Structures
1.
Amino acid sequence: MHVIILGAPGSGKGTQSAEIVKQFELQHLSTGDMLRAEISQGTELGLAAKSVIDKGELVSDKIILGMVAEQIKNNTKGMLFDGFPRTIAQAEGLDKLLKGLESEITHVVQLDVDNEELVTRMLDRGREDDNEETIRNRLEVFNRQTAPLIDYYREQNKLSTVLGNGSVKEIFARIQKILSS
Ligand code: AP5
Ligand code: MG
């Protein structure tokens, strides 16, 4: 089983991923966490990514696909992709990588949360890229570059949309139902 958790910034991808990987014994692969690790280690990649992340733009598909390929090449477990793919090019790249492993995405769970709630959650959290200007751009970038993935996976009959409002537990119960069926 290989799962994508898809949703706008602040929709709860990371929060739900922590629950999902425990229950379904998947490997969590968050490109955002990987990039923040590169930044905190002060690598060249991290340095280049930081200015992009601070503006709320997307890091290049080439860098992201390279990072993901490195992570999954020796993987034997099911994977949970969080914050990736974020563009059609990344989705196609992922399809290719998985095909090379004679595998494919089995489920795409989309978390649906209204914009006002997203902004409130992120301002409450206050990560470095959680300031009002960057948040506004992240939401725009999501609508422009990532939202097309909803149709991409719907056309493949892989998409399930979950209401992302409510308690963490309630939302997880909705996801659990989808991944168990
Ligand atoms: P990334 O780290 O992926 O951030 P994001 O998509 O903007 O999403 P967040 O991590 O902010 O939110 P989340 O959905 O994980 O929600 P969370 O669980 O934290 O990416 C950061 C940047 O890296 C991007 O902008 C881009 O520059 C770059 N990047 C990363 N991947 C890339 C890629 N593939 N391609 C190109 N660039 C890439 O929850 C948010 C808050 O809400 C938390 O405080 C949480 O406690 C709270 N919360 C969660 N659930 C609930 C609930 N049910 N009720 C109330 N509060 C809740
Ligand atoms: Mg996250």
2.
Amino acid sequence: MVDAAPPAPESAWEYAPAPESREIVSIAPGYGLFINGEFTPAADGKHFTTLNPATEEPLAEVAEAGERDVDRAVAAARTAFQRTWGPMPGTDRAKYLYRIARAIQERAREFAVLESLDNGKPIKESRDVDVPLAAAHFFYYAGWADKLEHAGFGPQPRPLGVAGQVIPWNFPLLMAAWKLAPALAAGNTCVLKPAETTPLTALLLAEVIQQAGLPPGTVNILTGDGATGQALVSHPGVDKIAFTGSTEVGKEILRAVAGTGRKLTLELGGKAANVVFDDAPLDQAVEGIVNGIFFNQGHVCCAGSRLLVQESVADMVLDRLKRRLGTLRLGDPLDKNTDIGAINSRQQLDKIEQLTAAGEAEGAQRWSPPCLLPTAGYWFPPTVFSGVSQSHRIAREEIFGPVLSVLTFRTPEEAVAKANNTPYGLSAGVWTDKGSRILWMTQRLRAGVVWANTYNRFDPASPFGGYRESGFGREGGRHGLAAYIDG
Ligand code: TAP
């Protein structure tokens, strides 16, 4: 009898480095604000540095907009609304939006590399998710621009005017597309404030907007920090405010806007339950759990950060999950084989470290696969907490990092009660073989989106948004237009 061949040494299975080239992107040493179709320095000359979070290498100096810049941008948007973009027929607005969509596709590699450099996310995600979805969003809303009277808002839907839009750092280009495309399709003009740590793809989008020949002032992009965002949302010349970010800041904005008659939509945080029943296809469910919480380092508002697994299969699911996590590759975001990239900022890393320390202190069991963290930059290993109870902070608070809290349940009623035991209500997942159980669960889960036997699926035609502390209003689909139409 011949002995079976010995298993290959582990090193034989290591992937060779497969770095995407940076050459496609030329980052300027400094960037101005994009106001009235031109790049211009901040009125008071202030600027800040944007870093590569994977290496802490400075990438560029970026202008920091103050109140005078907000005034200038809002005035430019008002003029464009009154004179060019607002009165323009929808068929013409559509042509500009199609141009933007095509230019994003043509420059897709450039956008993807720049996004990974500035944000820290793996290139395979920026290349296969962020950039194609951003282009798809512009294509989708370009299609609506000349059909608004058939969208269910009456025979002559009217835009609101100037939209002030503030976005976070987790999907910088995609969040810009979610905000700009429906607003422009409906005939509004925009002033957009990207997050302080990820301004570069919004500035590249400004170049695309110039390239597409949009009338000056239609889109204005103001880089800056929280104070810039605050100046924008409290500016009296803004008719509509659209904010995506933390619940804490969303509440502040809600208080500031109350009583002003200005329209507001808030897309805020989440603490989603991903519910796995014992009849689920477990290998598929494990992939869904991994995608649910480790995609984009867990910096996802709808991340499945609470795994609720039926007690009878909990050990088996946890074993398979750990085995799968052992195969994830953490490291250089520009490497095409990387699954887990860098944490976006020192501040976010501190928050993740603080909350995971609280998890251990409160008695949950922490586990991470063996995983070497790079010495420079901001990194956190994929982490699973088992033995979590509902009162633990890691089961209640949004961590916004690659950290999964595992809880168990025995009956569907208990699963629903635990899943809904959160102030948030953005998303949820259900894994089961039975269609009837999926319907039963989706009717009871208080979440804006419920995925069944899948997770983190996005489509521009599908509305997305939350309940309760996850905010209000919908982005995507026909519903996404409603936020930018008067009435
Ligand atoms: P925030 O700190 O709230 O920041 C979001 C944006 O608001 C940034 O551009 C920020 O500027 C700006 N900002 C800060 N303070 C402000 C103020 N007082 N007034 C106006 N703007 C202000 O959130 P974040 O940490 O960047 O993002 C993570 C959060 O966003 C998570 O809670 C996540 O769940 C949520 N999120 C939700 C969704 C949806 S669709 N629901 C999608 C993505 C993310 P700076 O960058 O300069 O601080």
